[in-house]
Amino acid sequence: MTDLATAPTADILRHQLADALVAAGAITSPDVERAVRTVPREVFAPPGTSLADAYADDVVITKRRADGQPTSSVSAPWLQARMIEQAGVGPGSRVLEVGSGGYNAALLAEVVGPTGAVTSVDIDLDVIGWARRGLDAAGYPQVATVVGDGEHGHLPGAPYDAIIVTVETADIPPAWREQLAPTGVLVAPVRMRGLTRSVAFTRDGTGDSAGSGDGLVARSLLMCGFVPMQGQGSIPEQHLDLTGGGGDGGDGVVVLRVDDDTTTVDPGALAEALRGPRSDVWSGITLPGNTSFETLLLWLTGQPVPYGRLFVDRDRAKVHFDGLLAPFANVSPAFLTADSLAYLVLRKLDSTVPGAQPPGESRWEFGAHGFGPDATLVATMLCDAVRAWDRHAPDPHIAVHPASAATDAASVAASDGAVRLLVPRRHATIVVSWSAPALTSAATA
């Protein structure tokens, strides 16, 4: 039991959090560091949240749906700090926050200072009410809070030097670009074929002069996760249960999420395939333990094959699938055909495997587990994509074009042979390209 007389105070925990974020490189700006050391995060946490939880570098859920899924949260401090730095705001900046909670708006108020302005908009009246009470209690009455659909921004406060979106969005609505100052920055967690990245956009790729076009170009991106947007901007993924049902409590053990209209699969056939034999293919591409491979995940989304993400309850999968279904994480990228799939796996090498490291130096190899009639073909395709990524180690280029210019954007992007991924949405087409050559598709839906 904690001795209350010696328990750390909120001030101590606040400074410890800031120290940790600076040490980890999540904070590099003195203005953001000062904000994290100043704003009382516990004020924005739900009643009953301990100080330790309020100042953990983790998400604090503030509202859930009836089924338990979160609809609003206070994001992890490291991510909030990084996104504010992505936006490049400072004293005097005018900022719109889409998706409220209070804490992030208070951090922004500290960063922009008395000569700046912060407006926070959210579609949920409860969320705005909670944010308003927290901001007043923490001493930030100057932050404007607005109930509204974030898809439309907030025109009365425009133009903004930065718009920071704190909900997952699959589209870039016109209001965000139109309400952005000529040299402003839009930071948004954009979902591209199921994968979410916080992307900092400027007009026509310029950050220091007025952009003249209707497009946006990314200048930085960051792996992240957020609750999805509600309202008119909501674009849900397909959730296909591949468990096979049977009334034995196994439903939901395996769910395939598909985020584009061009991928067509037969859920029943895939569910049947997962109960059949498994084909293992290994890529020969290895990496040391604790090495990030987030660029690979984005690279895989752009390959010219039907694509999804496999969500697996691994503990229950051991029972329902006799141990055959063994992804390295709860979610794995998957290549698909109508009746077959292969998902990315990792295996730890040891001294009996060629290419293994000396004892004490762990090394992991990428591979694929395939199921269904085309199991080996699709698993080989996935491993080919891993090998292509390893050869080129490409950095992606991300641009956004209005939907009205989608055809031109596609043709121009494809003209140099570099385009990998087009994400057509209602308002915009997101174009992700690499300089590396494309993988030739041998698997079709």
Automatic annotation (TrEMBL):
- What one GO molecular function would you report for this record? methyltransferase activity
Q: Where does this protein reside within or beyond the cell?
A: Cytoplasm
> Looking at the keywords, is Ribonucleoprotein present?
no
- InterPro entries associated with the record: Methyltran_FxLD, PCMT, SAM-dependent_MTases_sf
Record's keyword annotation contains Cytoplasm: yes
Swiss-Prot/TrEMBL GO biological process terms: methylation
Q: Which CDD domains does the record associate with it?
A: AdoMet_MTases
Name of the protein in its database record: Protein-L-isoaspartate O-methyltransferase
* UniProt source species: Dactylosporangium vinaceum
> What is the organism lineage in this UniProt record?
Bacteria, Bacillati, Actinomycetota, Actinomycetes, Micromonosporales
Primary gene name: fxlM
